[in-house]
Amino acid sequence: MAGEGKKRAVLVGCNYPYAKFRLHGCINDVVEMEKVLVDSFGFDANNVKVLTDAPGSPFQNLSSFANIMTALTEMVAEAEEGDVLFFHFSGHGTTISSLEPGQPYRENEAIVTCDLNLITDTDLRYLIQKLKPGTSFTILSDSCHSGGLIDKDKEQIGPSTVKALPNPVYGKPRGLSIGSIMQTLQSVATTIGSGASHLGEIAATGANILQGIGSVLTGIHGQKGVSIEFQPQHERGVLNIRSLREEEGILLSGCKAKETSADVMAGGVTGEKAHGAFTYAVLKALEKSKGHTLSNKELVSHVRKALEGHGFEQHPCLYCSDEKVYAPFLASQHPQKYNIHEDEW
């Protein structure tokens, strides 16, 4: 039996400060999460990588596609049996449709990096399938459409029949349409003379959006600087990407695949600082549970009730195996029963 392993984390916050679709609470989310991991979950600060797009951030700490994928790849490669891995993303999410002749319609969920590149569910699935046996990998994504982020069928807490109140006026969705991304990329591609004409063709003809945006991103970032989803078919085949097995990976999503997650301005229910509604509810639940241990199911259930109580029309979900439903969040201790009042954050 292996002893207790290391705890490693990659925390990513994207506010997109210079874009018209900027957010406000994402960097605060990961800054506070880092404190919780170190103070309450025994993470060594040296094993927690924080990437943001805060103005003035050095290049190596930017929440770019290259930096995020490098950090995740290194974390997975260095992990040993018994290690606990955690990836927290706070920022925009999107979906990309693909409709090819003779092929079934499919939709890919993705998170949007600060350089408007896309990390797709395929990228995350490939990382998870490379993990050594006995390694735990938990993803917490506070982004729109995050319910489908690892394309996992085993949904332990999923769609709700409870009708929540309309989204509060102090929240805005953390979702970015693929059209908005394409418009911004078109100006970038025009500047560097790469792929702009192809974007115009996509808009005019309604061509395969997945292929189109992949072509433009490849023109901007190069073949090795984009999602596996945009790689040539023969290269993807070599990677042997498969569906995840039930026991692989744990996803705590801020909402269902067809929903949006709220970004809350300072002065709203999150107090003096802007935050993601989902991340803030998670942080408050963890804070109130000091001296107790939350299972994955307990955490998501309490967070969902808190969000519904505050009028957010988003439903956090839990995707994992039956065995991991009652496992401690981030594998800290054996779960114990506790109570958090539903009217409190």
Automatic annotation (TrEMBL):
Question: What is the official name of this protein in its record?
Answer: Peptidase C14 caspase domain-containing protein
Recorded hits in InterPro entries, A to Z, give: Metacaspase, Pept_C14_caspase
Q: Which family does it belong to?
A: Belongs to the peptidase C14B family.
Peptidase C14 caspase domain: which residues?
6-321
